[in-house]
Amino acid sequence: MKQVVYVASPESKQIHVWSMDEKGKLTLLQQLTLPGEVQPMQISRDGRHLYVGIRPDFAIITYLISAEGKLSQKAITAIPATPTHIETDNQGRWLFIPSYHQGNLMVLLVDQQGIAQSPIQVIGDLKHPHASGVSFDNSHLFVPCLGEDQIRVYTINDNGHLTEQVAYRITTNEGAGPRHLAFSPNHTAFYCLNELDATINVYSAFEPYQQKQNCDILAAGAACKPWAADIHITPNGRHLYASERSASIIRHFEVTAEGLVLTPMAAYATETQPRGFNIDQSGHFLLAAGQKSDHIAVYKIDAVTGVLQALDWYPVGKGPMWITTHIIKN
User: Fold this and answer.
1) For 162, which DSSP code?
2) DSSP secondary-structure letter at 81?
3) Global pTM?
4) DSSP code of residue 38
5) What is d(CA 97, CA 74) in angstroms, rounded to the nearest whole number?
């Protein structure tokens, strides 16, 4: 299995493209300089394109992914707000892009060539939406709104337009600041990382999306101010990880077979201010970006215990904050 890793560094306006071998070693393939600060990235469902958001001239860049994993630009599509996160529906027909600063949620059509088009819908009444996630059956979009302490739920219509299901809004604890989502591979649960109190909420994946658990990321009595950032689950659904920026840690949780209960395990010191991290497609490695260290760290994930073993560190651009992994299919 051939894998590539894309690392976005906004302050230096760069994307570093790495190949990853079966032992987790990275080799630099390409270094790109973009026309703006690059932040969110998303691989298309068919694996042929990478979508990248930039600012201050708000746009989505569509890149073609070569057989080697290198990127070549196909199009730049202007959008009306800062792209904070990029999600695609399960069929690869639309992109959903929340804007934290402008309080918007944008829907973009993806054409038959895989190029992101201008928005077909802009919803403008959200307070600090930070991410979005598509339900397992492709019927709903979940949007955590940090400034509302709510996760909004939208129906995805056949034409890509969104209709909010107000009755199904999910309310978090006051001041929690819902930020990012992860979904269990067995389709039973999803998890919301809350930025402002550094907790994780576990929800049933079925209406009315009942909360099953609330877990702390920081240890009891931690002196630092909570500032959680990112969350990911292994492909087998057995281990979930979350990053916390004030403490510069990756926290590990074991996941029960049904996906509805987390057990806190170890916390691992990592790169300074880990704004973004990801798990490779095999589930064998975790890669973390240090927004204040200008490096990424690679860890081996124990297949049974989920314990992280540090392997190596690699320099990237300034302020790295987004990592995306991809399998190259021959």
Assistant:
1) E
2) S
3) 0.97
4) E
5) 19
Other beta carbons within 10 Å of 59: 19
Gap between the Cα atoms of 69 and 3, Å rounded: 8
Per-residue tokens: 108: 């973009």
> pLDDT (tens digit, 9 = 90+) per residue, 260-301?
999 999 999 999 999 999 999 999 999 999 999 999 999 999
Strands 211-216, 199-204: parallel, antiparallel or unpaired by DSSP?
antiparallel
Distance CA 24, CA 308 (A): 13
What does the block give as tokens for 70?
Answer: 């290198």
Give the model confidence (pLDDT) of 39-94 as tens digits.
999 999 999 999 999 999 999 999 999 999 999 999 999 999 999 999 999 999 99
User: Are 160 and 109 spatial neighbours (Cβ–Cβ below 8 Å)?
Assistant: yes
Torsion angle of C-alpha atoms 235, 231, 107, 161, degrees rounded to 10: 70
d(CA 23, CA 12): 29
CA–CA dist 131, 231 (Å, integer):
12
Contact 285, 299 (CB under 8 A): yes
Mean pLDDT of the chain: 97
